[in-house]
Amino acid sequence: MTSDKEIELNETQLKVSSVLNKDNKNYGKKNLIDGSEETCWNSEAGSSQWIQITPTNSFSLNSIAIEFQGGFAAKRFVIEYRQENGTFTSIAEFYPDDHGKLQVFRLPTPFTIDQSPFRLTFYDSYDTFGRIIIYVLKIYENK
């Protein structure tokens, strides 16, 4: 990804659908962007789960890298962009593998994100209870 630049994420830009047992210290959203591969975001049970990102600047979304925990990956996830009327519209759909290695999901064509939120919505977890566990989340722009 030599032509891609990682977008700097900070905690004020993130919202998540749920946190396991409301234990934000051990499983909260900050663990997605803390730079440690030993901490994770762990959702509650149930489908669907999501991560919402509100950028501080406009950029051209090119790809997303995610490291799930094996057994707790989504079978499918959708990148959705919030329209002016508040509804979310799908811009890309991906089918992750169920393993604990970093996976890169490249959009077919870069999508311009302004300062409106966009979501990664996870469906059909490999976990029987629908939990999603993510150790690493990286967002890349087209440069």
Written overview of the protein:
The protein has 143 residues and is mostly beta strands. The chain contains one helix and ten strands, in the order E-E-H-E-E-E-E-E-E-E-E. The chain has one domain: Sandwich (Jelly Rolls), CATH 2.60.120. The strands form two sheets. Strands 1, 3, 5, 8 and 10 form a five-stranded antiparallel sheet that branches. Strand 6 (74-82) and strand 7 form a beta hairpin. It is globular and about 35 Å long. The model has no long low-confidence stretch (mean pLDDT 92).
- Sheet with the most strands? 5 strands, antiparallel
Taking all residues together, what is the mean pLDDT? 92
Strand content: over 45%
The radius of gyration over CA amounts to: 14 Å
The CATH homologous superfamily is termed Galactose-binding domain-like
| Shape by Cα distribution | globular
In CATH terms, what is the fold-level topology?
Jelly Rolls
CATH class: Mainly Beta
The number of helical segments is 1
Give the gist of this structure.
It comes from Adineta steineri. With 143 residues, the chain is mainly beta. It has one helix and ten strands.
Overview features:
globular; mainly beta; 48% strand; 1 helix; Jelly Rolls; five-stranded antiparallel sheet; 10 strands; 143 residues
Topology summary:
Layout: E1 4-6, E2 14-16, H1 24-27, E3 41-42, E4 49-53, E5 59-68, E6 74-82, E7 88-94, E8 103-113, E9 118-125, E10 133-142
